[in-house]
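Task: complex structure prediction.
Instruction: return structure tokens for all chains below.
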Amino acid sequence: MPKIKENLRQKIVFGIPKGSLQGNSLLFLRQAGFNIYVVPRVCQPKIDDSQINCFLLRAQEIPKYVSLGKLDAGIAATDWILEQKAKVIEVCDLDFAKKTVGRGPKWVLAVPQTSPIKSVKDLQGKVVASEIVNVTNAYLQRKGVKAKVEFSWGASEAKAPLFADAVVDITETGESLRANNLRILDTVLEVKTKLIASPLAWQNLWKREKIETMAMLIYGRVRGHQMSNIMAHTTSANLPKILAVAKKYDQASVKKIAGTDYYDISFRCQALQARDLLPALKMAGAHGIVQSPAFRLG
Amino acid sequence: MPTKNKLRLGIPGRALRGQTIELLQKAGYSVSVSASGHKITLDDPEIECFFSKTQELAELTQAGMLDACITHKARLLEQNIKAKEISQLNYGNGTWHITRVVLSAPVDSKIKSVKDLNGQEVFSRLPNLTKKFLVDQGIKAKVTKVGFPGEAKGEMFNKPLVDFTNTGRTLAEHNMKIIAELMTTLPCLVMNPVSYQDAWKRQKTENLALLLNSARLAMDMVGLMMHVENGLMPEVLKVLPAMKKPTVTQLRGENLFDVLTVVDRKEARELVPQLKKIGCTNIVEFPLEKVII
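Output:
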């Protein structure tokens, strides 16, 4: 009995990133069954789970607070975890970014279209503006290039060539780089969004279970977001060709339709893959092709 | 170097814009439109696209500046465009239905039928098609080309007008009533004839048409799953649409079957109560993303 009472008082403190990851973080938390009410200007949203306290915080700060144990868990991206050298437990990947689900953004090294700089090697002795100084320094060191990395508060796209020779900037669709006439030289870091936990909270069995349950529910929704069911009909003659196409994506289940020469085939793929898959299936002779959303937990 | 394995595609930037973007998204593309609203980018490095008016897109495709574009069937006829039609697409401006080209006249005008046009001046967004229509009808009238939007000019200058209509709402707003229909028109994915000879570009465009059409068809359909007792199977198979073979699986250790099929969304309204009445249980309706028949 005392244990239950203690559990009733237990809470985990959870950090939700404010800014670019906010929209998708709230979307998937809500889809996972947590009703969250965000009041404008108030940074402590209400959540309909009495065991969770949440805070909206800058994405840059969540890894630090999680590593210190001030937050028990939170959603953060690998760039700020690495930049702050935060010691955190990576519970699971959440494949979403600001605009897309399934493809992460990346930090790239870019120069103006007209710049004589052709590769990272040409940056020897030059100035690079970057929001992620530590990550950029580590990258340049890996490449054997000595350059001065200047901290940038943001709007780095605008800084080359007047304020720096090159910039390290984050891009998801490439739109902003194109708009500012920048040319990408190299990828510095591919970013993944993760659910992270504090090593301290991880020691506490109750907290650890609570965090793992949250992670499982959110992860399932993010994965489900990307998954589709594919069903198709085929004659026995085309079946091997169609199975060869399907094999690249998933194990297909095949059923013979009684009293006919037809087979029914079904499998799952990532929603994004359907763009290449459907024409390939059609060409292999499938018909009655149906793609529907797949829901998946865990 | 930039043209190798790249499809240059024109996207309607005005009337068909909203529906085209939505359909591209449903087809599986992530579409980003710049803050100014003038620039469109797809998350497919093999497609280079931009917005423009359908009449300009048709010309650019004919001239080979574009490999392919989505334009209106009526524009192809009006401008006598030489292009390879890959597929018609089933949507309109602000709606998912067919667009009509109609002759209308102000409500209080003397013009009540096509015959009354003799000796009159007709405003038209599609002058060539209008002239041909009048000749076919044996009418002598002057045709004046007008730009978008035509409805306001028909009302302002009290003239009969040939223009596109989807719901008829804009015409009604300008006190214009429809007198005759010249044609129906749909968006059309067309290719430049030289680009069409390029096997890679043709395949790329045909795949795009397949994805757009399958996403459009899925909007009008739903999936149905249900459990059916063995004895009820013949009756259930009789009411399920014949053209789509339902998938039937026997449930392990039971005298029950799991039946799965796709049906027209409107049909489902009538079908579900009927299936329930027959005795099907656990009937689930689920959304579809793409359907290729």
